[in-house]
Write the structure tokens for this entry.
Amino acid sequence: MADINPFESAVAMFEKVARQMRLDEQYPGQDLIRRMTTPDMSISFRISLALDNGDIKAVEGYRVQFNDDRGPYKGGVRFHPQVTLDEIKALAFWMYLKTAVVDIPFGGAKGGVCVDYKRLAEREKERLTKKFFETLHPFLGINRDIPAPDVNTGPREMAWGLDRMRKSTGFWEYGILTGKPIELGGSLGRDSATGRGCVFITEAHLEEHGLSPADCTASVQGFGNGGQWAARDIAALGVNVVAVSDTSCCLRNMNGLDIPAVIQHKTSTGALAGCPDADQLPPEEIWDVPVNIVIPAALENAITLDVAKRIDARLVAEVANGPTTPDADEYLFDREVTVIPDILANAGGVTVSYFEWVQNAQGETWEQEHVDGRLKAKLVSAYRRTHDLSRQHKISLRNAAYRIAIERVARAMVTRGAQ
């Protein structure tokens, strides 16, 4: 998987759809494909991190602001040893398409640091996070670029970031970051939004095709925040979750896993390994478990062509960003396996981030039921629009979602004129 460039894959899919749409013919002389596949700005910088033992560790940080034609840049921050500039570019690219698909007034950005964050001590993590935001503060703003959590970051890191931004600017702006703790202006429902949003859309898909959740089984690859909430909510829907995996193992019980107990074990021990009442297999064997629904919820490029050939399912719902490579995507479509694409399936996180931003601007706090209700309405509406377009043109849901996003951004770009 390491030799698959995520940004090149993302651009290849975009260009394929743009040619099918005859984008250059719709908007002659605008050079839209190049403009829409080139970041507005890519920022690379060094962080010199003081470790608790007195050593200094140099790590590289990034922030890519890809497109703001429909609103301020928006996107998460990840701390992971595999972070690269091309990965961050791909994630920022998908983000601006994602916000367009669900029609919220944001653009797309992403940030990250190439570091083994889990191995850092608590104070080292705080220093790293605050240095990251201190370096970037001239480029961020409540109506300019609004970061949020991503891989290995969460409300704690956003609180640290908010503190650093407050000290850098000299005043409070709660909406400058989203995914914050509730006591610092965070929104109820933000922690569950990515996984829960995917389940809302999956439920709508099952209803659309006359399928009962009680007759379905599912597997979840990746058991971080998004994967845990997806597993919890799809099990609550009535689907029998028979396998989950993280880097330690694949847990399998064909009679069904006790998902709350599995989550409790993962929370208390940090890994799925050792969880009782299930077979423990190598992590990659998650793909060999026959189910109706596969939920990839880890990192990019997890479903390669070789992996796709192992999948025995009728539906893939992408909680992760970019989990399916282009050749695997084509193979699954040819096999009539439906893939609910990441730019639709995992848009719940950025949607509730938007709700948080709105609440901060209005000085309000919405109840959990109100957040979930608005989230479900927004995502199901976007799913139905995408599904209708895919049926009309006999194309994949991914192709349809890209068409909707490309058209919305292109109209905004042309309407604004030369930038």
Notes: The first helix runs from residue 6 to 20.
